[in-house]
Structure to design on (865 residues):
């Protein structure tokens, strides 16, 4: 295919614009990594852009030297894996159910779910509910309240509704029941939406810290995000706190790392695991995110 | 039939979900009603069988908004039950403690618990806002009756401080972690703060007597001449500092000048006024303005937070002196030594004798400490199942011998009495000097695991030592610390005779107080950085006008009402 001169110029302009746009997205991440790898005191001088000026792993050492961090990382991984698998299973079942046009009270049920997207009881009723359910200080508090995200259900339901009805009907003609249709026919051809929703849930689970803070006590159920929030809080407290024995080594601590470098190291630590997952899900993700975007 | 199957499927799904919810239910939160039996200490023998009838062990549930000591020991850590201090409390009182350390901001979690009607039995360290809520909503148990019945040692230890803890309705709802008085003969200039100078510079100018701000100015001039640059050729400031945060240089000077609690000044009529109305206020502002105009003061001194200042201006080293706490740069010279700076061994910071008191009034000598409701309070909730046991525990911890054990571990492990004086064993002294943290000693001695309940470190112990033995320069043969104490006074803890005025204040007053604080931290440096003395005077008056515009006069009236109420007037 021969491309005209005008079209070439247009393409170049597109490339340049997209490149600049990509750099504006990429630069903050590079800058964060550079600062996190820089000496804490030196970083306060500013002027660090793409790479560290005085290389130091002190911020990472301080974050990783925290007692209980390994346990917290394990808890984060556990809740992400269990939460994602369980959440995906429940979302898929409910979405499939709601995608069936002959479901009794379908509109009413959908309304009830959608209603919760706009209105909630608030923090205190949530707290009382969780407490009365006996979920305080249990692993279940990470999983059960997050089993169903209505938004995810609606996306998946939309995808299921757009699947050819003839596929499901032919399976039923061959004697398949609803579970078989879901497991053997619908889910295998729904990888894009499953991957997308899995990513949504996984990212949410990985980043969640507030439920840890509100519903748990002690270190047993602490998560990586919660520990990192505490590290940042403690760093700030070191700067602002009142005097006493604990404060005397402020200067020494500050030599190794500062709240700024620790904050950046924290961002890197929490972001990288999720970033590493993206490439494996990207091909599905693009398709999945387009669900419902095009009507034929 | 088909419809029936559908309905059945829905019902079955609901049952399945409900059963899963039940299966996933967790443990209840720590509760005094259903305590887990504690693990027994391995090195310490089980308590002797109690006399017949066997008294039932009381479990107290304590919610600590501050979390564990230095974040080291989780609430489930066996150390809480196994350490010698816990064992001693159990043997003496038959009480065990179940701690609850929230995962994040303790006050936010506490407020949720209160909103849900689930009150912890004992609450440690609520902030001022939460404290007010606990009192005003009737969540806190009035302690007067319990103190009368079980608090003889509390009365002896706290003395008149108890009256400072009395709320406006006449009841006492909290005790304070700290208690005690600054004994006569000590002049702590502003909570262990003062003029802190690099030792090499102080020696270079001949360690002159400083009796006024003019004397300080003269010394700074000499610093500027003698130390214009650091080892890297960067400019050095004769005086540095910060303003963002607690105990900034300005407050230190105010404190040294006799402005009680750094911001409140007690007039001849025994009323308190905000520091801007003290006789010294304008003089101190003009002093800093002069330093700024003549290049003796780091121009960022009133902008930086303390952490940034420490790392950016002291560690370099680019600061010769500052007004602040002695501990702020106590070990900073180690970084000079590491950097190979010449004469670094002699570049440590020392507090130097410095008092400013134009009207010959120094810091009040007999200052009750701990009259501050709020972050260091301990409260019992009105739903507590064992309030008497809680009060017995508080009372037990205020006995001097027990308070000393809380701070240093039980007698006979780290320390012992020799000739009636507590003496630290040499092997432990070496460990402290080697830099081991408190937590390294907690399991074997029990030290500082319970000081957040009741445990004062204010003033001297009855044995004429620090309450925390490892901080005692004499007990530790610490010559530098001894010099510090001689210059500064050993009592660096807060002496809030008028502190906590705003704790429990109605919202409208709290808003004024918050705004006053914002102006102090955000607008004062603009005054100090005026281009001339005349401009500084004008700007200062404008600053005071601004304070009055946001309600300073009303707040002063409120502050006096609170103070008078606390003083029983």
């Amino acid at each position: 295919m021969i491309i005209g001169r005008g079209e070439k110029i247009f393409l170049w302009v597109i490339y340049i614009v997209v490149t600049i746009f990509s750099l504006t997205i990429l630069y903050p991440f590079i800058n964060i990594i550079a600062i996190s790898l820089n000496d804490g005191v030196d970083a306060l001088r500013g002027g660090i852009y793409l790479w560290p000026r005085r290389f130091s792993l002190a911020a990472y050492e301080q974050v990783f030297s925290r007692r209980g961090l390994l346990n917290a990382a394990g808890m984060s991984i556990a809740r992400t894996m269990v939460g994602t698998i369980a959440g995906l299973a429940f979302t898929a079942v409910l979405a499939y159910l709601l995608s069936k046009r002959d479901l009794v009270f379908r509109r009413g049920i959908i309304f009830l779910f959608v209603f919760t997207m706009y209105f909630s009881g608030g923090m205190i009723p949530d707290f009382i509910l969780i407490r009365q359910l006996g979920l305080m200080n249990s692993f279940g508090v990470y999983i059960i309240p997050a089993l169903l995200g209505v938004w995810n259900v609606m996306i998946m339901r939309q995808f299921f509704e757009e699947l050819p009805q003839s596929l499901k009907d032919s399976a039923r003609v061959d004697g398949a029941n609803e579970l078989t249709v879901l497991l053997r026919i619908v889910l295998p051809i729904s990888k894009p939406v499953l991957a997308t929703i899995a990513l949504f849930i996984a990212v949410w689970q990985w980043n969640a810290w507030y439920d840890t803070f509100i519903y748990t006590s002690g270190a047993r159920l602490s998560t990586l995000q919660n520990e990192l929030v505490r590290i940042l809080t403690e760093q700030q407290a070191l700067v602002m706190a009142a005097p006493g024995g604990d404060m005397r080594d402020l200067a020494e601590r500050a030599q190794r790392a500062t709240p700024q470098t620790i904050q950046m190291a924290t961002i890197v630590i929490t972001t990288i695991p999720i970033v590493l997952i993206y490439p494996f899900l990207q091909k599905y993700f693009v398709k999945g995110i387009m669900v419902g975007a095009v009507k034929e | 039939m088909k419809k029936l199957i559908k309905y059945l499927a829905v019902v079955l799904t609901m049952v399945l979900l409900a059963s899963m919810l039940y299966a996933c239910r967790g443990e209840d939160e720590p509760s005094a009603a259903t305590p887990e039996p504690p693990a027994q200490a391995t090195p310490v023998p089980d308590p002797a069988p109690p006399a017949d009838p066997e008294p039932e062990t009381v479990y107290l549930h304590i919610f600590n908004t501050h979390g564990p000591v230095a974040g080291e020991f989780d609430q489930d850590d066996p150390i809480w039950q196994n350490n010698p201090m816990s064992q001693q409390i159990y043997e003496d009182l038959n009480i065990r403690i179940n701690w609850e350390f929230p995962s994040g901001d303790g006050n936010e979690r506490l407020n949720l618990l209160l909103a849900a009607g689930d009150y912890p039995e004992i609450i440690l360290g609520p902030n001022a806002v939460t404290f007010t809520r606990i009192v005003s909503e009737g969540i806190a148990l009035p302690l007067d009756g319990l103190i009368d019945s079980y608090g003889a040692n509390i009365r002896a230890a706290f003395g008149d401080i108890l009256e400072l803890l009395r709320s406006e309705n006449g009841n006492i709802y909290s005790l304070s972690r700290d208690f005690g008085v600054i004994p006569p003969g000590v002049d702590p200039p502003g909570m262990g703060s003062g003029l802190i100078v690099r030792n090499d510079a102080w020696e270079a100018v001949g360690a002159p007597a400083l009796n006024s701000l003019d004397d300080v100015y003269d010394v700074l001039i000499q610093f500027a001449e003698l130390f214009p640059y650091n080892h890297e050729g960067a400019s050095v400031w004769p005086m540095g500092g910060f303003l963002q945060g607690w105990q900034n240089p300005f407050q230190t000077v105010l404190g040294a000048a006799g402005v009680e609690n750094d911001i409140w000044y007690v007039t001849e009529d025994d009323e308190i006024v905000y520091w801007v109305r003290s006789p010294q206020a304008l003089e101190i502002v003009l002093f800093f303005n002069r330093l700024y105009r003549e290049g003796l003061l780091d121009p960022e001194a009133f902008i930086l937070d303390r952490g940034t200042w420490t790392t950016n201006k002291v560690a370099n080293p680019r600061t010769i002196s500052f007004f602040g706490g002695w501990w702020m740069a106590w070990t900073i010279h180690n970084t000079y030594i590491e950097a190979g700076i010449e004469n670094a061994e002699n570049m440590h910071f020392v507090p130097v004798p410095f008092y400013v008191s134009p009207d010959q009034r120094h810091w009040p000598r007999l200052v009750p400490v701990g009259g501050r409701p709020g972050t260091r309070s301990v409260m019992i909730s009105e739903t507590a199942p064992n309030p008497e046991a809680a009060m017995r525990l508080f009372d037990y911890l205020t006995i001097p011998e027990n308070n000393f054990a809380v701070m240093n571990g039980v007698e006979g492990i780290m320390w012992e009495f020799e000739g009636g004086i507590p003496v630290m064993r040499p092997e432990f002294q070496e460990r402290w000097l080697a830099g081991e943290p408190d937590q390294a000693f907690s399991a074997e001695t029990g030290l500082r695991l319970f000081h957040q309940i009741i445990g004062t470190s204010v003033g001297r112990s009855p044995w004429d030592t620090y309450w925390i033995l490892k901080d005692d320069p004499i007990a530790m043969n610490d010559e530098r610390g001894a010099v510090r104490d001689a210059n500064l006074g050993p009592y660096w803890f807060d002496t809030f005779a008028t502190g906590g005025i705003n704790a429990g204040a109605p919202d409208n007053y709290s808003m004024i107080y918050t705004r006053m604080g914002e102006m102090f931290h955000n607008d004062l440096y603009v005054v100090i950085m005026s281009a001339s003395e005349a401009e500084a005077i004008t700007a200062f008056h404008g600053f005071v006008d601004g304070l009055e515009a946001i309600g300073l006069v009303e707040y002063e009236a409120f502050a006096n009402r609170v103070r008078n109420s606390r003083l029983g007037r």
